[in-house]
Design brief:
CATH topology: Arc Repressor Mutant, subunit A
CATH architecture: Orthogonal Bundle
Mean pLDDT: 92
Radius of gyration: 13 Å
Low-confidence stretches: none
Number of domains: 1
Order of helices and strands: EEHHH
Helix content: 40-55%
Strand order of the largest sheet: 1-2
Distance between the termini: 29 Å
Length: about 70
């Protein structure tokens, strides 16, 4: 996937990683999920974030974690 998912720009939210094309910090998605909320609730509360880009961010996080995993 070559789509830009996360954007870091000092002029947007002081350089906090946000979903590309929005001002919504990526951390918000993880905070929602950690708090027991669903992806649906997050998407309803942040309509500028598309399902596609939110899922892509989760997938990239999963891949990043899996790359550091050591087989048992």
């Amino acid at each position: 996937m070559s789509q830009t998912v996360v954007q870091i720009d000092p002029d947007i939210q002081g350089g906090t990683p946000v979903f590309a094309g929005t001002r919504v910090p990526v951390k918000n998605l993880f905070d929602y999920l950690e708090g027991g909320e669903s992806l649906e609730t997050f998407l309803q509360d942040f309509p500028s974030v598309s399902r596609e880009i939110a899922v892509a961010a989760l997938e990239r996080a999963r891949l990043a974690l899996a790359a550091d995993a050591h087989p048992a």
